[in-house]
Amino acid sequence: MAVAIPGRSAPVQRTLFRCLKLLLLLIYFINYIGSAAAGNTPRHVTGEEGGNATLLCEFEARDDLDIALFRQSKKIIVCQNEECSERFVKKGACDVIIKGLRLSDARRYILRVNNADGQREVEREFHLHIQDEISVKTGEQLKMDVLLINADKVEKNSSGEWTEVWTRGHGVRVSSDRLNISDGNLTISNFTVSDTGTYRVLDSEGEILITVTVTLREDQIRNISGSSSGTKGKLDTDDTPDGTEAHTVASWIIVVSVIGALLLVLVISALIWKNRDTDQKVYQDVPTKDMNM
Ligand SMILES: *[C@@H]1O[C@H](CO)[C@@H](O)[C@H](O)[C@H]1NC(C)=O
Ligand SMILES: *[C@@H]1O[C@H](CO)[C@@H](O)[C@H](O)[C@H]1NC(C)=O
Ligand SMILES: *[C@@H]1O[C@H](CO)[C@@H](O)[C@H](O)[C@H]1NC(C)=O
Ligand SMILES: *[C@@H]1O[C@H](CO)[C@@H](O)[C@H](O)[C@H]1NC(C)=O
Ligand SMILES: *[C@@H]1O[C@H](CO)[C@@H](O)[C@H](O)[C@H]1NC(C)=O
Ligand SMILES: *[C@@H]1O[C@H](CO)[C@@H](O)[C@H](O)[C@H]1NC(C)=O
């Protein structure tokens, strides 16, 4: 029995060393995936018209960080003091809050974070999507200020399908003399029930900038349907950015699967180890019986 002991300590050390190397490799891999997922993909942030949105930089909290926010390569002045009344305000180490959201805030943003020496620490891209709800009475005029400079297309969801209402270069795509561009706005005159639905505005890369839910005003819904069940579906007012949530979920999936992989590696190496041990014992204790098998 004692024969195995001097011979065993070297393989044990080697196995341990191999495990450690594997662990380091795994940690490096997680870091790599984590930073790739967090850093370079644009984050999607959704806000309600009139509400607030937060662009989370998700970087270590440090005092020496200097931030710059860009919209279409134009620098936006961000108030550095959380208490100030500007619409763009820095929060925490490098987050930016946009207050009193307007439809025209629906853009791509680049957030650059530099350290005190002016060296780039991180750069994040955000797609800000704005949601709005409008309720209109029949016969009224509906003006939608959605033809932003970066808008390429307006679509309407009718019977579960998206149909083009307006495209840049072609103008109004539907044959309706009630739908016009006036004053730079997409305008529907003499509003009817058929005009209700979801309108969305896309940029040239198909990214959704604005979603407007148009409903019939409530007192009219009652008169038409004869029921008083409020149909004004309030959208989720939670101003947690969608992209961040999805990102958190992704991080958790990575963490859980990596822990799972680690456990698997440990169990397998333990099994191999144990097997080698018992094999040695079997050979030493009952060599002849083993040979006969
Ligand atoms: C937006 O921020 C302002 C100032 O921080 C706050 O007073 C207001 O309640 C916020 N609005 C929403 C919808 O969270
Ligand atoms: C589009 O409309 C259909 C019914 O007309 C509805 O079920 C669906 O949820 C709508 N989709 C969106 C994104 O509004
Ligand atoms: C919309 O434009 C069409 C022609 O382009 C015109 O005939 C119609 O009167 C206009 N409607 C309104 C409400 O301006
Ligand atoms: C849409 O109309 C409003 C006035 O009703 C105006 O202030 C706004 O500038 C118009 N939008 C564009 C893109 O011209
Ligand atoms: C508005 O629509 C109603 C019904 O669709 C129609 O009777 C009326 O003449 C329209 N008014 C205008 C100004 O187009
Ligand atoms: C809807 O009903 C209310 C009373 O319930 C009435 O005052 C209003 O004029 C009606 N509206 C229409 C458009 O018929």
Automatic annotation (TrEMBL):
Pfam families: V-set. Keywords: Membrane, Signal, Transmembrane, Transmembrane helix. The keyword Metal-binding does not apply. Residues 42-129, 131-215 form the Immunoglobulin domain. Gene3D superfamilies: Immunoglobulins (2.60.40.10). The chain crosses the membrane at residues 249-273. Residues 1-38 form the signal peptide. This is Immunoglobulin domain-containing protein.
